[in-house]
Amino acid sequence: MAEIEIKPMLNYIIDRVQARINERTLWDGITIRS
């Protein structure tokens, strides 16, 4: 039962993190890569 709740939660968190990274890479990509 835990997996059913954890998987969507992880997907949601990863989605938010990637969205923030994508926004930052527009003007700060070099810093994230290093």
Contiguous low-pLDDT stretches (5 residues minimum) are: none
Helices and strands, in N-to-C order? H
Mean pLDDT: 77
Structural class: mainly alpha
The main pleated sheet reads as:
none
Radius of gyration, CA atoms, in whole angstroms: 13 Å
Number of continuous helical runs: 1
Helix content: over 70%
Oligomer: single chain
Spatial shape: rod-shaped
Number of strands: 0
Distance between the termini: 39 Å
Percent in strands: under 5%
Task: Outline the fold blueprint.
Elements: H1 2-33
Give a verbal description of the structure.
By secondary structure, the chain is mainly α. It has one helix and no strands. It is rod-shaped and about 40 Å long. The model has no long low-confidence stretch (mean pLDDT 77).
Short description:
The protein has 34 residues and is an all-alpha fold.
Key features of this structure:
34 residues, mainly alpha, 1 helix, 94% helix, 0% strand, rod-shaped
